[in-house]
């Protein structure tokens, strides 16, 4: 079972690395076109609106699981930052990758600490 998981994880890491190389090669040839900027702006704005709608519709009793889930998603930032450090894009990219690792770690750990404190409020007091 563990071997299958390791093979899956290695395959996933290779796929992410290939995707990041493809994206880097696509934008390394110069300035992105107006169409690429429009596409990226559209995706960003859709993500903002969808995120706002989802967060505002969540009842207060589900804020703790929502926060826990968003902290887990924040861990994905760590994976991307580690891949940036691993790949040889120059010292500037590696510096930004290191900064991203530090900030994403602080974000994830701090978020889980706050989630833990929120869960403590729901525990029954002894005595």
UniProtKB/TrEMBL annotation:
Keywords assigned by UniProt, alphabetized: Cell inner membrane, Cell membrane, Membrane, NAD, NADP, Oxidoreductase, Translocase, Transmembrane, Transmembrane helix
Reactions this protein catalyses: NAD(+) + NADPH + H(+)(in) = NADH + NADP(+) + H(+)(out)
Q: Does the keyword Oxidoreductase apply?
A: yes
A cellular component term from Gene Ontology for this protein is: plasma membrane
Q: What is its main location?
A: membrane
Where, per UniProt, does this protein localize? Answer: Cell inner membrane
State the protein's name. Answer: proton-translocating NAD(P)(+) transhydrogenase
Q: Per the UniProt entry, what species is this protein from, by scientific name?
A: Polystyrenella longa
Gene expressing this chain = pntA
């Amino acid at each position: 079972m563990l071997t299958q998981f390791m093979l899956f994880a290695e395959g996933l890491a290779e796929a992410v690395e290939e995707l990041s190389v493809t994206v880097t090669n696509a934008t390394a040839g110069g300035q992105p076109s107006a169409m690429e900027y429009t596409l990226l702006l559209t995706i960003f704005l859709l993500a903002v609106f969808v995120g706002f709608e989802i967060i505002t519709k969540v009842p207060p009793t589900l804020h703790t699981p929502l926060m826990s889930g968003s902290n887990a998603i924040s861990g994905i930032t760590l994976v991307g930052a580690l891949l940036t450090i691993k790949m040889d894009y120059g010292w500037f990219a590696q510096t930004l990758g290191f900064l991203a690792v530090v900030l994403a770690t602080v974000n994830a750990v701090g978020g889980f600490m706050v989630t833990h404190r929120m869960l403590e409020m729901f525990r029954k007091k002894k005595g």
